[in-house]
Amino acid sequence: MPWDAWIRTVEVEPSLYAADFARLGEQVDVLLRTGARAFHFDVGDGHFVPPITVGPVVLQSIADQVHREGGVLDCHLMIEEPQRHFAAIRAAGGDSVTVHYEVCAEPGSVLALARENGFEGVGLAFNPETSPQAVAAVAEGFDLVNCMSVHPGYSGQAFLEGSVERVKQLRALLPLSTHIQVDGGLDFDNIRSVYDAGADLLVAGSSIFGREDLPRSYRRLVAALA
Ligand code: DX5
Ligand code: ZN
Question: Tell me: the pLDDT tens digits for 140-178?
């Protein structure tokens, strides 16, 4: 599935950061068979966020499997100097790349570099303490804006309640062609509220992988949006 196909639909994106890495291929397979097509892949560098998470080597290990079924790998770079890693992430099979507002002095030139590297989808993420107004002011040309609903770094954190209001503000500021992604702490009980506020790319880590029955958890999140 090309980027412009999945980005136009509402997507629940399993966040692989919460997967069981000893069974990564198996869990990706189960979710592909359940209908998931966009997988969120969190890269953390130990600087911009405290933990080192996963990178191109792990991305590459599942890229063929995901692409064969028409899926996409949506890479969230929680790292400083993200542009230094674009080529490696693209070569490993990343389809889209999202960089953080907080580390980009010139978001426009980072966007241009991402396009030069062949990314069809390019996103701009921002932390809970960053103002939606500041981000919207420099978001022109980006395909998506990721409104973090937790402090980036770890899966399994509680959803920050102010996020619904931030999504509403962002929706009013951005053109409708710019998609809003919400990332962190989404579960059955709150996913609808961010969707109603204007988000259409909904990332879910522990609410899928933290439960025994992955297909059931994924389907319940999708059903909450119906
Ligand atoms: C947080 C990551 C998120 C995270 C989501 O730093 O950017 O993508 O994996 O996980 P949950 O849904 O468990 O908050
Ligand atoms: Zn993320």
Answer: 999 999 999 999 999 999 999 999 999 999 999 999 999
Report the separation in Å between the CA atom of 40 and the middle of ligand 2, taken as the mean of its atom positions.
7
Positions marked catalytic: 42, 183
**Which pTM does this prediction carry?**
0.97
- What residues have a C-beta under 5 A from ligand 2, the ion? 42, 76, 183
C-alpha 134/C-alpha 57 separation (Å) is 34
Q: How far apart are CA 89 and CA 60, in angstroms?
A: 9
Ligand nearest to the CA of 144: 2
Q: Which residues line ligand 1 (CB under 6 A)?
A: 15, 17-18, 40, 42, 76, 150, 152-157, 183-186, 203-207
